[in-house]
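An instance noted here:
***
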Amino acid sequence: MKIIIMTILCLLLPCAVIAQNQAMTEHDMQNMVKLMQEMQQCMAKVDQVELDRIGQKAEIFGVEIDKLCKAGNRAEAQRKAVAFGKKMMQLPAFLQMQKCAEITEGLPMGDSMGSFADDFDFSGSHVCDD
């Protein structure tokens, strides 16, 4: 549940900033409300039990990675992080959340949110540096 709430908040924050920084037409506002409702309905389909398990695995994984980084095993930490990210991106709950996040591509903020999968993609940076 926390992950869903955080995801929605992260998705809504740019909307609030954009709404303050540019004049939106009534049509834009209606479209944004419609897309947010679609996303909310989509997120309701995510398996909460699986989502809780993902959260628990991520916490345990984070502790393991921190230990490896602190011990100077950066290569091993990176290897494990990339493998973990790939594994997470194949889970049904994650795939459903990715699908839900794609609904917001029609919002005026464009690509500013990035891909939901970016949270689990460590191939472009080093996990010990994040």
Observations:
- The chain has one domain: 2-39+47-129.
